[in-house]
Amino acid sequence: MPVGTGGASAPPTLTVAVLTHNEAHRIEACLKSAAFADQLLVVDSGSTDNTVAIAQSLGAEVHSYPDWQGFAVQRNRLLAHSRGDYVFFLDADEVMTPAFAQELQAIVRSGEQAVWTIRWRMVAYGHELKYFRSQSQIERLFVRALVKEYTGVVHEQAQLHALPGGAAVPRRLIKARLLHYSRTTVRGSLEKLTQYVMLGAAKRAEAGKRGGVLRGLASGGSMFVRLYVFRLGFLCGGAGFLYCLFVALEGFFRYAALHYDRDSLTGRVIR
Asked: Could you give the 3-state DSSP secondary structure of residue 142?
């Protein structure tokens, strides 16, 4: 049965859900792009800047949970506060274009029971990487009633209920691309490097995987070639080079930390 077509004639509703932590420099653009949502929801992880005040001034419903336990726990808190028939997870460093917003609203009006993935238009260091072939497809739009929970500390995944009769939930793609301001400064990239290196190393340590410099070189080197050459990062100037380099460095240091910092990784949860 399509969403929102039970006994009532009211159209399906949409919650846009955002996780924040010290996002005062970009939360306004993010939330303004989603102002059409029936519920604009923010779960904040203990910001010490003006993130919460800015979000509230823009009409967002804000809940604070400074006891950081990982991305999955925070997304589950977003789910707990969501009231829409559909929930779209928007990151604080993303902005919906008008075309994306229109397509999203049309999907919600359709009432279809499915999961939708998004693709990005990458922006790094003040420049859109126009020629970069971003192939990431991430599940972001859900019928809320179909989501059991999120699991995973980083690169968390939604666990879904089956449709009536046991059918698998269909996957769809939102054609318009979401603007992703992935990296704005070199300093911010260095800080993000530490965060994702240690999270990725901890995840691999728990899975029993091995690290080392050679494994890191293989991972980082192949990643750089894939992004810079085959996904056309080399056509995007200095910003494209920096973007590809930082992603590759994550791959290298993840395996270096997995070997040299292994004893301190198990159970590690980093904001």
From this structure: strand
CB 57 within 8 A of CB 117: no
136: which 2 tokens? 């990431």
Q: Which amino acid is at 85?
A: D
Please give the chain's pLDDT, 271 residues, in tens: 577 655 557 899 999 999 999 999 999 999 999 999 999 999 999 999 999 999 999 999 999 999 988 888 999 999 999 999 999 999 999 999 999 999 999 999 999 999 999 999 999 999 999 999 988 889 999 999 999 999 876 678 899 988 888 888 999 999 999 999 989 899 999 988 998 899 889 888 888 899 999 999 999 999 999 999 999 999 999 999 999 999 999 999 999 999 999 888 865 454 5
Here the tokens at position 87 are: 């929930």
Query: Euclidean distance between the first and final Cα of the chain, in Å?
Result: 39
**Degrees (nearest 5) of the Cα angle 83, 87, 88?**
145
Check if the beta carbon of residue 216 is closer than 8 Å to that of residue 256.
Answer: yes
Q: H or E segment at 130?
A: none
Name the E strands within the chain. Answer: 14-20, 39-44, 61-64, 86-89, 94-95, 115-118, 120-124, 127-128, 138-143, 147-151, 157-160, 171-173, 178-183
Residue 147 tokens read as: 């989501």
Residues with Cβ within 8 Å of 268's Cβ and at least 6 positions away in sequence, in order, are 198, 199, 202
Q: Distances in Å between the alpha carbon of 189 and those of 95, 96, 143, 192, 220?
A: 19, 23, 34, 5, 16
Q: pTM surpassing 0.70?
A: yes
